[in-house]
Design brief:
Residues 19-29 have a biased composition (Polar residues). Residues 1-29 are annotated as: Disordered. It is a single chain. With 56 residues, the chain is mainly α. The protein has one domain. Helices cover 84% and strands 0% of the residues. The protein has 2 helices and no strands. Helix 1 (2-22) runs antiparallel to helix 2. The protein is flat, with a radius of gyration of 13 Å. The relative contact order is 0.14. The model has no long low-confidence stretch (mean pLDDT 73).
Length: 56
């Protein structure tokens, strides 16, 4: 149970860092807000997938 959540957290960090590297640093505030919205959506989908698998 903990290993799957750790794996998903590591995947989220990898995805967010790779996406963040593609955002130009001069568009900082709007890019960061957009990135946070994407990460929130991905996190919610992962929580729903793992939660339903664990019989939430």
């Amino acid at each position: 149970m903990s290993s799957s959540s750790q794996n998903s957290a590591a995947a989220i960090r990898r995805i967010s860092s790779s996406v963040g590297n593609r955002i130009p640093s001069n568009s900082s505030s709007r890019g960061i807000a957009h990135l946070q919205r994407i990460v929130d959506l991905v996190t919610a989908q992962l929580r729903a997938a793992f939660g339903s698998g664990q019989g939430q």
